[in-house]
Each structure stands twice: as structure tokens, then as C-alpha cells.
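Reproducibility note. Readers wishing to regenerate the assembly model reported in the main text can use the exact inputs given here. Chain order matters: entities are listed in the order in which they were concatenated for prediction.
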Amino acid sequence: MSFLPFAVAAWLFLAGLYGVVSSRNLIRTILSLTIIQSATYLVLLGVGYSNRAQAPIFADIPQTAKAVDPVVQVLVLTDIVIEATVTALLLAMAVQAHKRFGSLDPNDLRALRD
Amino acid sequence: MTPKARLILFGMAVAAFGFVLVDGLAGLPAFGHYHGVYGRVIDGIGVTERHATDLVTALNFDIRGFDTLGEEFILFGSVLGVVLILRELRGESEHPNRHEADEHTFAGASEALRALGLVLVPALVALGVYIVVHGQITPGGGFQGGVILAAGPFAVFLAGRYLRMKLLAPHTLVELGDAVGAAGYALVGLGGLVFVGVFFKNFLPLGIAGHLLSAGQMDVASVAVGLEVSGAFLVAFSEFLDQAIAVKGGSQ
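Running the prediction on these inputs yields the following C-alpha cells for the assembly.
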């Protein structure tokens, strides 16, 4: 099952995309976006994994031990921070959209359509 | 566009996109057969060259330190954006209804939850500080520890005491932590430029791998980032909570 992590990533990406397109609620749109982003974590970690390798933490394993790629793990950390910031900004916009239009349905955001 | 037409258009587009996505993923090396070079090199030299045993932190705060500067300012900038978007609008006033804000009802805080919140505050702060300062030895570092630190004052909110949370983490203080942390991290980079001539090159003694004060600039950078992340999260938390609890009125 060596393709399973990538298959799950593709599934998460497409499921999140469907969530964004079919959403009738801005909060749901934002949550779908975070699902799309979690697909990128799986791809990155999957690319860096080696069979029978340990975590790149050499505090309690010998320095010569086989370890997975730490570079992609740092990229995932960056990815998580960016996701948190994007989510915070989008939620703030959703709060103001709800105040302005009295609804969280994207179809009710009339000023954007006209 | 009707929702149905949108879904049909999405279905057609996603079929083409899915094909490209699957084709691209199929071109990757099989799971478990890593072919990269950088990861192997860093696994080989991380402990001897940088005296850090957690190589993820070594990358984050030393080898890729410059990238983390950008990441850190994205966090800083987006929190500024949240503050800007959630500013007081025309006709709004931030006068918390004293009763509701002091003991808000939507959390349904019981006496047991209040006692738990009280216990959680020091425990979370201690854990956060531990994670921040041990980043170069075991998993952790400024980003992870900063989020745990921010959860400390948040436990007071969970216990149903929003205004008390503001006493523990006043707005000026968390904003100051956010700004000082961001500036502190940039200063670590400037220190490299001033003392050894290269931006973000380590300029502090490396120490003995596995000791608390080791791995040179990583500890200092980690503390700066921890301060910034906890400040940024608390600013964002309190902006959102103000919207729910304090802001009244406003033009529709």
C-alpha cells in the first residue's frame, strides 16, 4: 500500500474543494479550505518518509541512525502557521460579512455580485 | 449562477484537475523510498555542526532561519489584519455588558470547570515555557510552545471569566509581546550580520549538544518566536471574543 498516503492526500484535496464549491455557509467554506491544506501536510510528510527510519530527533538515538527528512517537516510547520493565519483573517472577514449582510450564505453577499 | 450549474461546472473542472493531480502524485517516489539529498545531509551533520539534537528546530531557527523570518512576519501581518478588519465600526461601541462579560453564560461554566481553569493556567504556562526553551533538544520550539503559552490565559476565559482574562493578559501587554518577539527574532539575524558578517549565521557559543543552553542562537530565537506567537494568538483571541461579548450595535 505504498500509494495510500498520496491517495488520502488527493481525496482530502478534492473533498475540500467540493466543500468550498458547494458551501452555503462561509464558516464551512473556511473549514473546507483547512481540509485542502491538510492534504499538503500528508504529501510533504509522505515525500520525506523512508522505510524503517526514525524521527530526526537525535536526543535518544545514535547519531548514525537512519532518520526521515527533517526539511519537509519544517515545511509542514510553516504550512500549519500559514494555515492558522489565513483562517484567522478569513474568520475576521466572515464576522464583518455577517454584520454587513446579516447572513453567512455566500449567495447573500450582494455587493460582491453587482 | 445557480448552485446546480456551479456543481456541473465544478464536476467538469475537477475531472480534468483530478487527472493532473493523480498523474503528478504517481510521478513521486513510492512512499518510504525517499530519494532527497538535503534531508540526508542535514541528518548527517546536524548534531556535529549545530550541536542540536532536534533537527527540525535546527532547520527552523538556524539553517532555514531566514525563511522563518518571513513566516514570522506573515503571522505578525495577519494578526494586524485581524485587528484592522475587526476594528470598531461606525455606530458600534465596545461597552461590555458588565454582568454578561464578567460571568458570561454561553460557556456554561460550572464551579468544577472554574477550579480546573485555575489549575490549568500555571500548568499550561509552565509547559509552554518548557517546550519553548527545550526546542533544540526535543520536539518543540517557539511556535509550538507559543501556542501553549497563549492557551494559559485562555483557560481563564473557559472558566467563564472573560474580564479576568483581560486582567491576566491585558491588550497592551500581549500586543507588546507580539511586537517585541517579532523584532527580537529579526535582531537575532542582525546579530549574525554584525558579529560574524552573515545574516542569520550563528554567532553564539554552540555549547554541548543535549544541554539546555546549547546550539547557539536557537534558544534565543525560540524564545523570541514563542513571545511573538503567544502574543499574536492572544491578540487574535481577544479581538474575536470582543466581537462576541463586548461589541454592541452598529449599522446594518
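We highlight two features of this model. Chain B touches chain A through 57 residues (CB under 8 Å). Chain B has ten helices and two strands.
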